[in-house]
Amino acid sequence: MLVQQIVNAISLGGVYALLALGLAIVFSIVGLINFAHGELMTIAGYCLLGALLMGVPLAVAVVVAVASAAIAAVLMEQIAFKPMRGASVTSLLITSFAVSSLLKVLFQNGISARPQPIAMPSWMTGAFQFGHVSIGVGPLLSIAGSALALIALELFLRRTVMGTAMRAAAEDFNVVRLMGIPAGRIIATAFLLSGLLAGLASLLWIAQRASVDPLMGFTPVLKAFIATVVGGLGSLPGAVVGGLLLGVIEVALQSALPPDVAPYRDAIVLSGVILVLLFRPDGVIPAARAQRS
Amino acid sequence: MLSVRSLQVRYGEVEAVRCVDLTVGRGEIVALVGANGAGKSTTLAAISGLVRPAGGSVTFQGEDVTGLAPELIARRGVALTPEGRRVFASLTTAENLMLGGAVHLGRAALKEREAEMLDLFPILRRYHRIKAGNLSGGEQQMLAIARSLMSKPKLLLLDEPSLGLAPQIIDKVFDLIADLRRSGLTILLVEQNVALALEIADSAVVIANGNVALSGSAAELATSDLVRQAYLGI
């Protein structure tokens, strides 16, 4: 039972961590909290559904879904945020709300407001049996997916020129431009990465719920936003720690709380968040930033 | 090589630079001096593209570069070492250097240039894998200059290289600037330490309240009464 709960906690936390990372990458470079991040998840979900309905094999549909979220993220930046470059943080925030609402309405009217079922292959809903412990294939897959994504991102940020430039831009964007590195390319890469992470998170999310709906991105991205704040806004390790922490706390409360207190789970989690921020206002692992002009 | 004409820069209502003219010839060191807030750093920011001028023109190697994006100006061979060093604190010394030349040089040339920089600044060699934030002020200044030089610039804009450094370190930095000029680099130097700047420069421009107050050869200015009274305290 305990092992099962730990697996569930890490698997949920992993999804939050991927989403939180996407938010943090964009925030660290552009200073924008992208509230339309959830819609990237939704786009990935509908593309997965569409691809499967067209009879595409699951493996290909998965690639299509993740790629569509990444492309959508880049387009979002080019169409909605690029014209706003140099605008205040508030204007950017409102723009991202607008993009989010617009896409939601498009999904509701263009597709359907009702959840669409996605049939997951039977092996994914099965479970491994280790002695007395049975562990779901879904959660394990989710942990593996998150871990691989984290490793790939870390390698990209540490080993490539673009990754290094992105870490530098999070500290001091203007100086990166003074080195001749194009600002537009760094921003586009940040959105691309956030889209890839949102697409992957969406798949892991859907794998355990087996349906897509226009508002599916809202709750997980709200949680991811809380995770980035707890971890330290703009800090990538903070986003991962915050996401995992939130997942663990949610699952722990879910299983530990007596049934009559269970509805207050989110209230308890958020009180914990306030408590963390009272003692560490910059988050658990604050972002390093020299100056921003 | 660089020619700035009637440059004007505004930050909202504030006119930081009203009318600045200056010319830097190939292989020269030109010093831009003046009091705090006179508009020196803003002039460099406008030349490098970090701020868009409200008026006037910047010409580099015969081409108009007024108002171009900083990355485009950098690619033409202008490097700015900003005030306060602004090294990437969370990146290693090696990563800072690499970024300096990343878009200008190929992989092999980048390694070669890095080796040259480590020869020029031997002190950086032992901090290769250490985060730049852990270096001392003087070491960070060396790193900031080396990072700018990684792109093999034709013109180096140096903003307050002596700021916040101990006197012996300042001497080292200025010896280095003199060496760089001997190697053929053209330098536009902004400096609050006027005596030091005039010692090393060929010519100088004195800015006050966003206007050129005086300009001429460094030797001339060093003996001018105005400069002696206002900036050298003699």
UniProtKB/TrEMBL annotation, chain A:
Entries under InterPro entries matching the protein: ABC_transp_permease, BCAA_transport_permease
Location(s), subcellular: Cell membrane
Domain of life according to the entry: Bacteria
Membrane topology classification: Multi-pass membrane protein
Residue intervals passing through the bilayer: 12-37, 43-75, 87-107, 127-157, 186-206, 226-249
UniProt keyword annotations, A-Z: Amino-acid transport, Cell inner membrane, Cell membrane, Membrane, Transmembrane, Transmembrane helix, Transport
The family this protein is said to belong to: Belongs to the binding-protein-dependent transport system permease family. LivHM subfamily.
Name assigned to this protein: Branched-chain amino acid transport system permease protein
Organism whose genome encodes this protein: Ancylobacter vacuolatus
Origin organism lineage: Bacteria, Pseudomonadati, Pseudomonadota, Alphaproteobacteria, Hyphomicrobiales
Automatic annotation (TrEMBL), chain B:
Pfam families associated with the record: ABC_tran
Name of this chain's protein: Branched-chain amino acid transport system ATP-binding protein
Record flagged with keyword Transport: yes
Protein keywords: Amino-acid transport, ATP-binding, Nucleotide-binding, Transport
Organism, as annotated: Ancylobacter vacuolatus
GO MF term list: ATP binding
ABC transporter domain location: 2-234
Family to which the UniProt record says this protein belongs: Belongs to the ABC transporter superfamily.
